[in-house]
Amino acid sequence: MADNFTQLAGMLQSPLFGQNVINKSTKTNRFLASGILTPDAQFGAHLLDSTEDYMTLPFTNDLAGDPDPWTDLTDIEVSNVTTGKQRAMRMRLVKAFGYTDIAQEFSVSNPANVIAANFSDFWARAEQKMLVQMLAGVFSNTDIATAKLFDDSAKQFGPRGFLATIGLLGDLQDQTFSKIAVNSSAYSEMKAQQMIDTAKPNEAVGPFGNYNGMQIVVDDDLPLDENGVATSYIFGNGSVGYSVANPASSTEVEREARKNGGRTNVINRRVETMHVMGTSVAPSFHSAGQTVTMAELASPDTWEVVKDVDPRNIKVVAYKAKVSTEFLPKKKASSGSGSGSGTTTGK
User: Fold this and answer.
1) DSSP letters of 151-213?
2) Which superkingdom heads the taxonomic lineage of this protein's source (predicted)?
3) Which domain covers residue 19, as residue numbers?
């Protein structure tokens, strides 16, 4: 086992492995690849410059007001350029996977190779779940929901509901939105109602086509409650800022010779932020730990509208409506009849 451990430690050099994981996970994250999550240089510049839980990011508002009369009877009035600030989470995250010497001996697939090859996919899935949790929290805020959520839960999912949702951005609706994120059940409903602009189902390999010119992203982490009500989100360009970085010692291999007969652990750390632009972490929010949890991301107490910013300027809207029962996922059987069993390689 010593040779295997030495080889693994050499393969997982920090920060090379950590950066490689970031590079791969950013390619496989569907929300990032689609442009829903937008890499933000301002976020990235501050991720590792402090140990605080938050970053305070200033911004300058657009010029406002009406033009004044030009005469020689009065001085020319000078209007102020106003500024504001929003607080974003600085999330310190870690994940460790391990395998025992016994698992290494008897596993058909080498656990060390599995961990090395799949860590990036783990982070991509985790980030997608984080975004869904954050959206749930943001849209639980009363001010944001009033301006940005079209709740049609009592009615059938359909194009009129989508149009009403897009209309929440008023006269900017056709200039702002570019992406739609839906649960797979809602996606099936869209296909059944011929809401897809391009391609035919029997000619497509994966999620295909557009709706009203907007790219469709399908993810089953998006909410679908027990009554068949799906929550879908429509995004504008640059609506969700994102950045991720490697801290010191982002990756390490830990050898526990006595644990479970001998165990090797691979630990990967990262610092990142994900932020719905136009919102801010509420001043009253304080994480129960040293960094925010998934549950706290989804809490309405975590988020607020940026002071003096119209909630309509938040470039994400949500649509809730019922999906036809034939498109809902089937419930799993309470007990199985198979003969297989699951085992763990290190815990």
Assistant:
1) EEEEEE--HHHHHHHHGGGGGGHHHHEEEEEE-HHHHHHHHHTT---S--GGG-SSS--EETT
2) Bacteria
3) 2-63+82-327
In a domain, 98, yes or no: yes
Given a contact cutoff of 8 angstroms between Cβ atoms, the answer to whether 177 and 331 are in contact is: no
Instruction: Give pLDDT tens digits for 163-196.
Output: 999 898 887 777 778 899 999 999 999 989 888 8
User: Which letter does DSSP use for residue 334 in this model?
Assistant: S
Q: What is the CATH number of the domain that holds 240?
A: 3.90.1690
Instruction: End-to-end CA distance of the chain: give it in Å, rounded.
Output: 18
| 3-class secondary structure, 322 | strand
List of the chain residues with pLDDT < 50: 1-6, 201-207, 336-343
b/e 160-192 (16+ beta carbons within 10 angstroms → b): ebbeebbebbeeebeebbbbbbbbbbbbbbbbe
Q: Which of 140, 57, 105, 69 is nearest to 306 (CA)?
A: 57
Assigned token pair, 7: 């080889």
Q: Is residue 71 part of a domain?
A: no
**Overall size of the chain counted in residues:** 347
pLDDT digits (tens, 9 = 90+) for 208-259: 568 877 889 999 999 999 999 999 999 988 899 999 998 888 888 888 999 9
Task: Show the DSSP H helices in the chain as ranges.
Answer: 2-11, 16-28, 30-33, 41-46, 101-106, 111-138, 142-148, 159-166, 173-176, 184-192, 294-297
Angle, vertex CA 26, rays to CA 317 and CA 304, nearest 5: 35
Q: How far apart are CA 98 and CA 66, in angstroms?
A: 64
Domain-embedded: residue 346: no
Number of domains forming the structure of the chain: 1
Handedness of CA 97, 101, 106, 110 (dihedral sign): positive
- For residues 38 and 241, what is the distance between their CA atoms, to the nearest angstrom? 5
